[in-house]
Amino acid sequence: DGKDYVLEYPIKADFALIKAHQGDRWGNLVYRKSARNFGPIMAMAADVTIAQVSEIAQLGQLDPEHIITPGIFVQHVVAVNAEQGEA
Predict the structure, then answer these.
(1) Distance between CA atoms of 63 and 13, rounded to whole angstroms?
(2) 61 CB contacts (<8 Å, ≥6 apart)?
């Protein structure tokens, strides 16, 4: 229509390191509090996502209504106990 537009390219990352409250071995993640703000967005924007979780749930244990980041966006899940992760 003869109008000029500004094109903003989306954010892109090679790696995303995110923290979640719960996760299963397939990478489905449940967040607590403000971790939900940027965790899901960065998981979708990165080529490789590594998620640190406080609890590993059994497959099928997580309520599908509470899963914020589906496992398709997560390549690695690392469980860290609260005693180990806090300094």
Answers:
(1) 29
(2) 24
Amino acid present at 74: V
H or E segment to which residue 87 belongs: none
Cβ atoms of 49 and 78 closer than 8 Å:
no
pLDDT digits 0-9 by tens, 21-71: 999 999 999 999 998 999 999 999 999 999 999 999 999 999 999 999 999
How many whole angstroms separate alpha carbon 64 and alpha carbon 82?
25
Residues 6+ apart with CB under 8 A from 49: 15, 16, 18, 27, 42, 43, 73, 74, 75, 76
